[in-house]
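Tokens for Tryptophan synthase beta chain. Go.
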Amino acid sequence: MSDQTVKYLLPEDRMPKSWYNIAADLPPMAPVLHPATGQPVGPSDLEPLFPREVILQEVSTEREIEIPEPVRDIYRQWRPAPLFRARRLEKALGTPARIYYKYEGVSPSGSHKPNSAVAQAFYNKEAGVKRLTTETGAGQWGCSLAFAGSLFGLEVNIYMVKVSYQQKPYRRALMETYGARCVASPSVETSAGRAVLEKDPDSRGSLGIAISEAVEMAVQREDTKYALGSVLNHVCLHQTIIGQEAMAQMEMAGDEPDVVIGCAGGGSNFAGIAFPYLGRNLREGTKTRLLAVEPAACPTLTRGRFAYDYGDLAHLTPLSKMYTLGADFMPPGLHAGGLRYHGMSPQVSQARHLGLIEARSYQQLECFEAAVTFARAEGIVPAPESSHAVRAAIDEALRCKAEGKAEVILFNLSGHGHFDMQAYTDFFGGKLEDLTYEDSLLADSLARLPQVSEPA
């Protein structure tokens, strides 16, 4: 290929036919525990929430799990997603580093989330499910599940964190365009929501609260299941198509990344780009650095504790061993709502605990500064969540410049920011601020972590 190639496109017949399962290569993880008994969860315990095929994927240790042909048929609408060489950004930074980004904003809903939403909708439809409930932070997952539900004729009810519901009305409109129902959380529709509003009528909401509401509604009807957009093993599994494609495209480019970067809230888009590389590191002894980037206002991997915790505020979900800030920790209302979650994927957490990946946090303003630099060079406006990966990639490139090293940087540009322009307007108007929390509140939240006797 020409030395000036900008984008690397895989033909549709080279789209991966299987997802990669990191559980085959990671050391065994601590068991997930039942919230009522404290005993390890079995498949039957999860059946009120998920269809059987999803449960089997959640607990599988098989290295490859076949992508059903109907799912691959839908993926073909936007997959394989392009890999770009950020030549103009390299020039703007004056760096010897070579920067690549995998762009997931080409999906119908504008982010990486349909990679799992389509799969989950397919398995639920096959199981005879009529109705799905879910939560969403900034709205990328809600839009994606709404899109997937429309393809399979499923009713979709979405509890959207109230601060994002107010900040991002066009994502709400997109969900409704796809036929879903979107409710601001906390709401009066559930016991969990009413309990929060009784204590704080002005609650801005959190993903932990929205999860409680969605789970509560799911278990009330036999024709209804719950779908989660991040954190769980099967979601990380579905996203690995990103990294698998990127590996093939980097081979086309004749390059190999020294560092792979993804933003991290619940962990799915970081896992998507990083887990195939992590698996190779574990199997073959390669040394690719893997960097998860999170907001300083919700620093789960960098300030959280590796411990058992609930995934939701009402303690309806199983307990997982993960990095957590505490299920009742209320992060500030940053614009990167998809990263505003107290916990982290147990698989990502295990990798971090073992020193297999790195973690870094950034403030809101420096991420928007990086996003603007990127947009003015590359033309794509990043979602606020993705701007964290952009910030880290730029910092890595500037490090290379200072050290005179021509390293290769690959990051996941997990979505566009076309529905987040109010955040950019606020940034340019000087209304956007770095958000903080009181250390005492984090300490109190961590002090209330459940006391769990780990199974032998």
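The chain has 19 helices and 15 strands.
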